[in-house]
Amino acid sequence: MAGTRRYDVAASGRWWDEDDRRWLPAGEVHAWEPGRNETVCGLSLHRSGLSRFAAVAWIDVLPESGGAADAVRRVCPRCAAAAGRRGTDARPAWRRVNPRP
Asked: pLDDT digits over 19-41, tens only?
């Protein structure tokens, strides 16, 4: 059985959180897999000018989570479709159990 993928965050901006004393993502956010040089939707991190936030999980930047989403203006719809909006489970909501021959 395959394990679940872990997605971190790449964002177009950043802001300093005085309470947590760390940088958090701002602007447009994308899902990013550690060890890759591109986002899940295919944007190059360097060419797009995106900053990596390895300490921030993907689920924390979704507006409904209320986590690190204070300064997030837009969530990439292609990354949200690939990484999911259901937490750490990044697989599709349905799965065919008995496919036809």
From this structure: 889 899 999 999 998 888 999 99
Tokens of 53: 């936030």
Percentages of the chain per state (helix, strand, coil), in multiples of 5 = 15, 35, 50
Amino acid at 59: I
Angle (CA) 9 77 22, round 5°: 20
pLDDT tens sequence across 75-89 = 999 998 888 775 444
Instruction: Tell me what the mean pLDDT of segment 42-66 comes to.
Output: 87
CA distance 76 to 57: 15
27 contact partners, CB below 8 Å, separation of at least 6: 11, 12, 13, 71, 72, 73, 74
pTM of the model: 0.77
Would strands 8-17 and 51-57 be described as parallel, antiparallel, or unpaired? antiparallel
